[in-house]
Amino acid sequence: MMGHQDSADSNAALRSWIYVSTVGADSTAKVIMRGAGILILGSLLLGLFLPPEPSTIGLTVIWIPLLVVAAVLLIFLGPRWVRTTAKVGSEEVFLSSAGIRARLALDEIESVNNSYFPSGGYGYRYLGKGHRGFISGGAQVDIELKDGRKYTVSVQSIDEFCSAVSSAKTSR
Questions:
Q1: How far apart are CA 153 and CA 84, in angstroms?
Q2: Residue 40 to residues 62, 63, 79, 97: CA-CA distances in angstroms?
Q3: Is residue 111 a contact partner of residue 124, using CB atoms and an 8 Å limit?
Q4: pLDDT tens digits along 25-44
Q5: Rg value, the chain, Cα
């Protein structure tokens, strides 16, 4: 019973975050995703007015519902999916974007600085050898690890994020 209590306490400590930043997709990403969804719906409407060849009727029955679902997802959920979350805890920094997650132990972090790297794109990005990005537009920080890996992350406030990582590292 006592061991179970200790593990529960350590899990609770990991869940108490010092700083939490959630950055949604900027307006450019929203326009692109919603535009793609509208383009798919427009193509479907055009396809409804053009009679299909008799040999492709079976394919039409399969593809139309799939494309409608894809369009609706892009229009309504796409911009929400491209969201970057950065959390600073007493033991680690947690990063998440587009379903990809990374946990960086505070002991591994060499430095955290304002990013001047033009990352481009949205979501989880490969930015070069040993360099990954969790990008959703806006302000970004570079997290450099002692082993040479680097992460570029969208955050709400560069100063607050850097300050939170610094205070978490010094309080250890």
A1: 8
A2: 15, 12, 16, 25
A3: no
A4: 766 767 777 787 778 777 77
A5: 22
